[in-house]
Write a structure and sequence with these properties.
There is one protein chain. The chain has 267 residues and is an alpha/beta fold. It is built from 11 helices and 8 strands. It has helices at residues 11-16, 29-37, 49-52, 64-77, 96-110, 124-132, 148-151, 160-176, 188-197, 218-221, 239-256; strands at 21-25, 42-45, 83-86, 114-118, 137-142, 180-184, 202-205, 213-216. The protein has an 8-stranded parallel barrel, surrounded by 6 helices. Helix 2 (29-37) crosses helix 4 (64-77). The longest helix has 18 residues, at 239-256. The relative contact order is 0.12. It binds 3-methyl-2-oxobutanoic acid. 3-methyl-2-oxobutanoic acid binds next to loops.
Length: 267
């Protein structure tokens, strides 16, 4: 695999150079090809796929087999872009052994490049074990969606105690060997402070512009998911509107007999 745009060990160098990292979620080969040609640095096969594609309430329902299926699809569509795969709920929390086996399966069966997992100090030994076995890990702190039943979908680190915990978590993750940390729903001053504290890049979502990069859920930023509009989300398209319009046009043409016309028929 020659000529990959960015390798995971290069992430810290990008931080030192002050070049922002662009990450988007991706669940299939077609979008992977489009995102790669648009110059996205990192593709994330997020466990959000079960909310976005399957309409489930939370990310908790995603299974390892589902993640592997989507990750392999994304990898088929992206020749040069590093692909990171979320380890789903309960695939890495039960024991270090299970985490190694499951993360290993992800890389072996998909040809993707790293896994992402949620949690701070408590996950450090697991992260260390994965990294020591050659599995690159991206951490995820702040609002961690797999803990939604504990945290609620709210900004984390607003008071001194939880801000201190987040700082400790970031330091522990760096010491354990992560190659980057996603910071989700964190006040922007705290996210900038954590970004300055660690050598590895931070990638923010709802964490202000002091992070080393940004990630959004693709379907949200394209305006395909018109039912989700948190404050941090900026929509760069109105694909929901375009899809509805195109489908209504097709339906009208079928009903009126305008489609298929001679140009779209065989003699
Ligand atoms: O699953 C996901 O889409 C994520 C992003 C929100 C960072 O983890």
């Amino acid at each position: 695999m020659a000529d990959r745009h960015l390798t995971l060990p290069e992430l810290s160098a990008r931080k030192r150079e002050g070049r922002k990292l662009v990450m988007l979620t991706c669940y299939d080969a077609l979008f992977a090809r489009l995102l790669e040609s648009a110059g996205v640095d990192l593709l994330l096969v997020g466990d959000s796929l079960n909310q976005v594609l399957a309409g489930r309430e939370s990310t908790l329902s995603a299974t390892l087999d589902q993640m592997i299926y989507h990750a392999a699809s994304v990898r088929h569509g992206a020749d040069h872009t590093p692909v990171i795969v979320d380890l789903p709920f309960l695939s890495y929390q039960v024991s270090v052994e299970e985490a190694v086996r499951n993360a290993g399966r992800v890389l072996a069966e998909t040809d993707c490049h790293a896994v992402k997992l949620e949690g701070g100090v408590a996950m450090a030994p697991t992260i260390r074990a994965l990294v020591d076995r050659g599995i690159p890990v991206i951490g995820h702190l702040g609002f961690t969606p797999q803990s939604i039943n504990l945290l609620g979908p709210r900004v984390q680190g607003r008071d001194d105690v939880s801000a201190g915990r987040l700082r400790d978590d970031a330091v522990a993750l760096e010491a354990a060997g992560v190659c980057a940390v996603v910071l989700e729903l964190v006040p922007k001053a705290l996210a900038a402070e954590i970004t300055a504290m660690v050598q590895v890049p931070t990638i923010g979502i709802g964490a202000g512009n002091g992070c080393d990069g940004q990630v959004l859920v693709l379907h949200d930023m394209l305006g395909l998911n018109d039912r989700f509009s948190p404050r941090f989300l900026k929509r760069y398209g109105d694909l929901a509107g375009q899809v509805t319009q195109a489908v209504a046009h097709f339906a009208a043409d079928v009903r009126s007999g305008a489609y298929p016309d001679d140009a779209h028929s065989f003699e």
